[in-house]
Amino acid sequence: MNIDMERYIRQLMIPYFGEEAQEKLLSSKVLIVGAGGLGSPVIMYLSSAGVGELTIVDFDAVEKTNLQRQVIHAGKIGWNKAESAMEFVSKLNPDVYVRTLKEKIEPGNVMDIINGHDLVVSCPDNFRTRFLLNDACRIKGIPLIHGAIFEFEGEAMTITDSSPCYRCLYPEAYPEKTPGIIGATAGVIGSIQAVEAIKVLTGLGDLLDCLLRVDLLSMELFKIEIKRRDDCPICNGRLRQIYPENYEDSCRIVTY
Ligand SMILES: [Zn+2]
């Protein structure tokens, strides 16, 4: 592999980062689900940092109303978002290999889609996809980085085999409507997800061991301790497969 390391000089200068961490990034495969408001900074910072392979999943097309926060799609109204993201990465860092999937994450494809990745970054705009990724990643033992945003607020959580999971936080979905969002809020939370991803892949630093809630209107950050729920079917190991009926309506687990 002929990689231009000069590109990464400013991160190589960090004494505890160095070439060893860079090599880990270059040999990593990351799945990013959603190339929207959160996906934009995640895609920007993971590709520019030199993550070797990115799989970008998005079935949606770029609309004018997206550009206020989905900044990687500039000038590409009408493009598929995964394709647009790939084109963005090819200009920012051509050394990154990008694979695109123009499909929705569903119970029937989620296990195949996450397979073979070192890490999954969750950037969708709905509970159902978050539950699917949470359950599938825990069954497969793949670390998952959750992020979500609302107006000036956001949250992030890193989910590993030894942490509580997203269902410990939210056992089921609550009614959603399209939220208003300040674009920079997506930038803050997506950047936190990107930093967590770099730490998972390199083994550096301490991962978020709580739910991080950020209110950018009052500029308050909250680290909220989440405990494993005894009745969580993911954490107690009872759920071993993806069953479609667990992702209907409230997404509560009804079948093991
Ligand atoms: Zn759990």
From TrEMBL:
Pfam families: ThiF
One GO CC term on file: cytosol
THIF-type NAD/FAD binding fold domain residues: 8-233
A single MF term (Gene Ontology): sulfotransferase activity
Top-level lineage group: Archaea
Family of the protein in this entry: Belongs to the HesA/MoeB/ThiF family.
Protein name per UniProt: Dinucleotide-utilizing enzymes involved in molybdopterin and thiamine biosynthesis family 2
Species this protein is from: Archaeoglobus sulfaticallidus PM70-1
